[in-house]
Amino acid sequence: MTVLETRRLGTKPPTVTRLGLGLAALGRPGYINVGHGADLGPEKSVEVMRANAHALLDEAWAAGVRYFDAARSYGLAEEFLGSWLAERGYATAVGSKWGYTYTANWRTDAEQHEVKDHTRPTLLRQWPETLAALRRTPNIYLIHSATLETGVLDDLAVLTRLAELAASGVRVGLSLSGPAQADTLRRALNVRIDGINPLSVVQATWNLLEPSTGAALAEAHAAGWGVVVKEAVANGRLTARATLPQGVTDLCARLNTTPDALALAAALAQPWADTVLSGATTKQQLHSNLSALNLKLGPEELDALQDVQQAPATYWQERAGMAWN
Questions:
Q1: Residue 57 exposure: Cα atoms within 13 Å on the Cβ side
Q2: Residue limits of the NADP-dependent oxidoreductase domain (predicted)?
Q3: Do the bridges between strand 93-98 and strand 67-69 make them parallel or antiparallel, or are there none, so unpaired?
Q4: Are residues 206 and 214 in contact, defined by beta-carbon separation less than 8 angstroms?
Q5: Reduced to 3 states, what is the DSSP secondary structure of residue 215?
């Protein structure tokens, strides 16, 4: 059994491995990752996908991964994870999210795959759904893709319920999306309910193409928050399947590594990052991702990669245009 380096999530439990596994691509037949449909193969029934998810979770567990991330909108990801944990008898740190409802009905060609709603009725409905699917209480529970526009960070009814969950021992917080991630996080850092901020975890997109939230994540880390990095390989745009920036190609050749490992290693090198999520769908991808843990990037390598970043608006516009497959 492999033992991976661990770190406390901010200043409080749980302890997590530096690399975790996100189930966004494992729990539903359609997703925006480059090549996702091909990774799953032609048969995408619930039974086949459950077996595939369990097999990859077994592989991750054997490799030492001890943090797993799901969400209500990831199809049956919570159920796949919960049934796997129950069958194996494993105890590990688990995170999930509320605020999106999965609506694709197991179709890859659905007109709408998920519906966003950050109101209290959705929170009250989805919390017990998460408990039932996971067959346990998650360690971490996040507002899914919180933005200033939804008003969730000013919704006293929602924040009061989240404060109740935090008082019960659940780490509550938010995940981020879009070009204004940093603004949303800084607003979240200043939330107060009866003088206390119930939020203490952030999951954000940070990668070589879109590093704009780095300074805000450092502020969250300094405030004792747990920091989880998602989309470090930019939904496949920083893998061998994509047309890569020359700077990434050159450094991969010099370090004899893969683009995904380089991208994950860059995220792991950030001092504020507690855990970085792999979004692997296959065992090959998982082990390529895991090789990032042995790739130590210094200031010279990180400086050389700064030229590949995009303007946030450009990055998020391109992401929004990625096809579900």
A1: 30
A2: 46-308
A3: parallel
A4: yes
A5: helix
Quickly tell me which residue has 């799953």 as its tokens: 40
The residue type at 208? L
Q: Tell me, yes or no, whether 325 lies in a domain.
A: no
For residue 101, the domain's CATH number is 3.20.20.100
Taking a C-beta distance cutoff of 8 angstroms, is the pair 238, 248 a contact? yes
Is 4 a member of any domain? Answer: no
User: Would you call the peptide bond into 14 cis, given omega within 30 degrees of 0 as the criterion?
Assistant: yes
Number of neighbours of residue 248 by Cβ within 10 angstroms: 21
Task: Give the integer Cα–Cα distance in Å for 91 and 69.
Answer: 14
Which two structure tokens, joined as six digits, stand for 314?
A: 């450009």
Give 45: exposed, middle or buried? Use CB within 10 Å, 0-12, 13-18, 19+.
Answer: exposed
Cβ atoms of 143 and 118 closer than 8 Å: yes
DSSP 196: B
Q: What is the pTM of this model?
A: 0.97
Q: How many domains does the chain have?
A: 1
Tell me: the pLDDT tens digits for 216-271?
999 999 999 999 999 999 999 999 999 999 999 999 999 999 999 999 999 999 99
CB 76 within 8 A of CB 104: no
Which of 142, 323, 309, 145 lies closest to 235 in space, CA to CA? 323
Residue pair 181/216 in contact by the 8 Å Cβ criterion: yes
In a domain, 39, yes or no: yes
288 is in which domain, residue-wise?
10-320
Residue matched to tokens 């991964």: 65
The rounded Cα 255 to chain-centroid distance in angstroms is: 26
